[in-house]
Design brief:
CATH architecture of the largest domain: 3-Layer(aba) Sandwich
Helix content: 25-40%
Strand content: 5-15%
Radius of gyration: 24 Å
Number of strands: 15
CATH class of the largest domain: Alpha Beta
Order of helices and strands: HEHEHHEHHEHEEHEHHEEEHHHEEHEEEH
Number of domains: 2
Distance between the termini: 30 Å
Number of helices: 15
Structural class: alpha/beta
CATH superfamily of the largest domain: Alkaline Phosphatase, subunit A
CATH topology of the largest domain: Alkaline Phosphatase, subunit A
Shape: globular
């Protein structure tokens, strides 16, 4: 009997039948709003402009699936319901964070990992209490309960967190500084970017923030020297988690949140640069996987697609190289437009149509580098007249979920997008499936995943957070 037991024991070792999970380190990337077309178009844009790699790294992962993103009450999900499914494996209603359809709290993967003794991290390019990261740190009935989410963060089972800062409701009396002070009083060490030297030597929980007070990091297309970026957070997170939890293992969620913001603004060049920026952080995770190839799992997906991005013009062609002439995101171009034509000191002269054309020639390449169709020029001229003509509204704006831009700026950006062969059907979420890209230890298990609610429970099983 003893001999038989030994034979079975050694046979199990040879076959990898040990009960010990082979997944020790988990990187869970979420490209907010990152549909399949966004990924494909980014590769086209990079190849034509030289902005980044011709091939986005995760499109070469051994597992490449399509998954559905429906929420518990709608075919089209929002980030809160989508984030809850990705964090907890539970479908809920749109706007809900970490609760089920009846409003009851549901446990999430950061809680499972922490309870099992693993280190945990949450990283985002937007506010740490915004919808997607909120699903990994809190439970509340409405995603806009920013103060409630911020308060819950103080006791959340998250060892390392990084984001632009705390975002607040417009009418609240509280400020981001209030919650930063609350974090420090809770024993959380706060570091400000872009450099986080020595983060690995800090004992206790850590919160890394942007180097300046902001609700979201600067878009990649707008970034200036000294601005904090996603890769700064990811490097700091790995340094901290590996030092403190290298023996046991860790789980970290990393969100490219500004892809969604750019797509809500129907701003193609900005969205493509944000997606490329997230891919650079995936490179950092891949470097870690190369050091720990048998123990590291990298999962990349999206909570939903944003904007209904379409690729191709009526002439069955694209010209992504034309997007290279866009110098900034639509919100920043709006700021430039205000500074150029609405200086603080009045009176100011009404700009001529030629003045406005010259502005967009400089900022977007229109007319100068990119031909503008007569139809598009007529549409832009109409907005110009409504803005500057007799009885016009100089504050004529176009509002999306995350920004308010001058209407004429939005129209000019859309004009460039169309000239390049890209257009958004609208500036909101769609019910289109999104990609699931997986590599590393245990990646084979994801080949049959078909819905976002299947991912977190599968990661937990592979990593041993839950049986």
């Amino acid at each position: 009997m003893k001999k038989l037991s030994l034979i079975v024991f050694f046979a199990c070792l040879a076959l990898g039948c040990s009960s010990k999970p082979k997944v020790k380190y988990v990187f869970y990337f979420i490209g907010d709003g990152m549909g399949i077309n966004q990924v494909m178009a980014t590769e086209q844009y990079n190849k034509a402009t030289g902005n980044g790699p011709d091939v986005i790294n995760f499109t070469q992962f051994p597992v490449r699936n399509f998954i559905t993103t429906v929420s518990g009450n709608s075919v089209v999900t929002d980030s809160a319901a989508g984030g809850t499914a990705l964090a907890s494996g539970v479908k809920t209603y749109n706007s809900a964070v970490g609760v089920d359809l009846d409003g009851n709290p549901v446990s999430c993967i950061t809680e499972w990992a922490s309870e099992a003794g693993y280190g945990t991290g949450i990283i985002t390019t937007v506010g740490i209490n915004h919808a997607t990261p909120a699903c990994f740190i809190s439970h509340t009935s409405v995603r806009g309960n920013y103060e409630d989410i911020s308060t819950q963060f103080m006791s959340a089972p998250v060892d390392f967190a990084a984001g632009a800062g705390f975002i607040m409701n417009r009418r609240t009396e509280r400020t981001p500084e209030y919650y930063e002070k609350m974090a420090e009083d809770s024993g959380i060490t706060i570091l400000r970017g872009p450099e986080f030297d020595g983060v690995e030597d800090i004992d206790g929980r850590v919160l890394c923030l942007s180097g300046k007070q902001q609700e979201n990091l600067s878009c990649a297309i707008d970034r200036k020297e000294g601005d904090t970026q996603l890769s700064d957070f990811v490097k700091a997170g790995i340094a901290y988690l590996e030092k403190h939890f290298g023996k046991k293992g860790f789980f970290v969620m990393i969100e490219g949140g500004m892809i969604d913001w750019a797509c809500h603004g129907t701003d193609a060049a900005t969205a493509f640069q944000e997606l490329t920026d997230m891919a650079y952080s995936v490179d950092i995770a891949l470097e870690f996987l190369n050091r720990h190839p048998k123990e590291t799992l990298i999962v990349i997906t999206a909570d939903h697609e944003t904007g209904g991005l379409m690729i191709g013009s009526g002439k069955y062609e694209t010209h992504p190289e034309r997007l290279a002439f866009q110098k900034a995101s639509a919100p920043v171009i709006t700021d430039m437009f205000r500074e150029e034509f609405f200086p603080e000191e009045e009176p100011y002269e009404t700009p001529s149509w030629e003045d406005v054309k010259e502005f967009f020639a400089d900022k977007l390449g229109l007319w100068d580098k990119v031909d503008v169709s007569s139809k598009d020029e007529a549409a832009l001229k109409e907005v110009y007249n409504k803005t500057f003509g007799k009885g016009g509204n100089r504050n004529l704006s176009s509002e999306n979920l995350y920004s308010v831009n001058y209407k004429i700026v939005d129209e000019a950006v859309k004009c460039l997008d169309r000239a390049a062969g890209y257009r958004f059907s609208y500036g909101s979420h769609s019910g289109s499936p999104v990609g699931l890209y997986v590599t590393g230890a245990g990646h084979e298990a994801f080949r049959e995943v078909r819905d976002n609610a299947e991912i977190a429970p599968l990661i937990a099983k592979l990593a041993g957070y839950r049986k």
